[in-house]
Amino acid sequence: MTDGKILVHNHKGGTGKTMVSVHLAHHLARSAGPGGKPICVWDADTQGNAMSWISEHQWDGRESFRYTEDGQAPIVATIDPEVALGQDRLVVDTPPTGTFIEEFLSVARLTEEDVLLCPVDGRNAVSGALKVAEEVAPTGCRMIMVHNRADPKKSHARTEIEALEEIAGHEDIGAELFRLAIPSNPDYMRRAEEQGIPVWDLSYASRTHTCKALRTFCSWVGNGAPPDDNPPAGGLGGNQKPISKSLNQRLWN
Length: 253
Ligand SMILES: Nc1ncnc2c1ncn2[C@@H]1O[C@H](COP(=O)(O)OP(=O)(O)OP(=O)(O)O)[C@@H](O)[C@H]1O
Ligand SMILES: [Mg+2]
Fold this sequence. Notes:
Helices cover 38% and strands 16% of the residues. The chain contains 9 helices and 9 strands.
């Protein structure tokens, strides 16, 4: 993975910014191994949802804490921008406000080393993604959209993907689209959030499409999000069976 910053942002609320930030941090910490550099999560949202999730709901309002687990690099979770901006490996969970990028750019830079991940869920979130893409375009930062909470049974999932493909197809916007959707799984995701753990640590969850797609997304981002390996040819979730072909075809073909 590069040492660039990873911002997770969409103007629209409830699209999965915190969910993606928390899972990415766990994935990066785990793949870095015990000797690896700490992964910092800057919870830039006053709701503190990432602080709560990462601390297994033990967060007492402290500005920063360190989450450690055997066999993986530490996660430093903070609400303090100074602590965050001093770290090499940074994931930023952002608030759903239209002014965030502007505020961020007043204290830090974004360059082509950095990535903005934009979870999209629902029609309003598509327009949010477009605004974000326009905002970050002048910085040179990569902007990658990912369709989260997809419900392949609903016809609008396909419509949303078409809208995202259209945004990604515009050369002057420069947005990319991760070519796998993360399906909705309210039951497992709620339990993961309630327990303050990544969803793939719940028993039996790792065989769900949601876990497979989320894992694949996190490792693709961790590998520097190679555009020519999108969707990753290695299949979903390492050695597991690929995500149901029919599910993906319903969405993408
Ligand atoms: N793929 C998914 N399947 C089911 N539930 C999900 C999925 N992704 C996120 N959720 C749930 O949806 C809710 C909103 O997600 P999350 O808090 O990550 O969004 P957000 O963009 O950070 O919201 P906010 O704008 O309020 O910060 C959470 O309860 C989360 O657990
Ligand atoms: Mg959030």
